[in-house]
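Quick one, probably user error.
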């Protein structure tokens, strides 16, 4: 059963994802994805040629397409109809062999029962879940599904807006430094696109440990100072000094 809070969050993504915004970021995402997220995710995933990869919460599917370009066999899961439809349209245009499934990650544990695995085609060599867990109010079943969908010993890589620096750009522009007032509480961060849900970093890492995963690496990428210098965006140097994103690479348990 999907939680009402999760359904509300998905509906926000569904209604605010304009075609124009999805087209703008369809190839390799926005500035932060291009310079911070994509290089880190690709490094953490390693050589994906011939590997089966699940892009969990794939949005407009841009990263699924980047993985397919690099030779991966990709399945994208996305619950918001507007984004899943856009991703499927791109697949019809490009024919990269990506399969998109419209589904809520928090309901996928049912699909991961052995007799249901063909529904997604799992288990996967790697599951990537970028900028998704902090978008889900009731998020733990989503992390569990990602881990269960990876093959034993397979990779689980997730990325978050860094929980310690969620208001980075705005705060830096205002104060020329970072200030944070509420880190330990859990709360909703309302935004015109869709809410994020703050929880401290320990919540994510302790859940990962409780699922039996082995931590491989934590990455906090820094913006290249030359890229920052070439940009006209006010406050962009914040990304040179503080991490906008946090990425975690882990191995799913070898035995279940
Ligand atoms: C910030 S976007 C990131 C999308 C994509 N991974 C990317 O990096 O561009 C957050 C995504 O999480 C998805 N999402 C929200 N709730 C979800 C859920 N319960 N299961 C799966 N995805 C969810 C949203 O629909 C949206 O596509």
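Nope, works fine. Designed sequence:
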């Amino acid at each position: 059963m999907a939680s009402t809070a999760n359904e509300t969050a998905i509906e926000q993504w569904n209604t605010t994802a304009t075609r124009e915004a999805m087209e703008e970021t369809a190839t390799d995402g926005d500035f932060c994805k291009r310079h911070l997220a994509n290089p880190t995710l690709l490094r953490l995933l390693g050589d994906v040629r011939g590997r089966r990869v699940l892009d969990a919460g794939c949005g407009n599917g841009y990263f699924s397409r980047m993985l397919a370009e690099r030779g991966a066999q990709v399945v994208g899961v996305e619950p918001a109809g507007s984004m899943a439809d856009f991703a499927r349209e791109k697949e019809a245009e490009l024919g990269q062999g990506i399969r998109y499934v419209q589904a809520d990650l928090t309901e996928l544990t049912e699909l991961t029962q052995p007799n249901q695995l063909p529904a997604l085609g799992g288990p996967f060599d790697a599951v990537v879940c970028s900028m998704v867990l902090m978008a889900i109010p009731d998020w733990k079943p989503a992390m569990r599904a990602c881990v269960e969908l990876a093959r034993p010993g397979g990779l689980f890589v997730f990325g978050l807006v860094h929980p310690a620096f969620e208001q980075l750009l705005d705060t830096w522009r205002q104060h020329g430094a970072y200030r944070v007032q509420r880190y330990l509480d859990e709360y909703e961060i309302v935004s015109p696109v869709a809410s994020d849900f703050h929880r401290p970093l320990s919540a994510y890492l302790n859940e990962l440990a409780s699922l039996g995963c082995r931590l491989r690496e934590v990455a906090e990428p820094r913006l290249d100072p030359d890229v920052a210098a070439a940009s006209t965006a006010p406050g962009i140097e914040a990304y040179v000094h503080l991490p906008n994103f946090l990425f975690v690479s882990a191995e799913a348990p070898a035995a279940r």
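The first strand starts at residue 52 and ends at 56.
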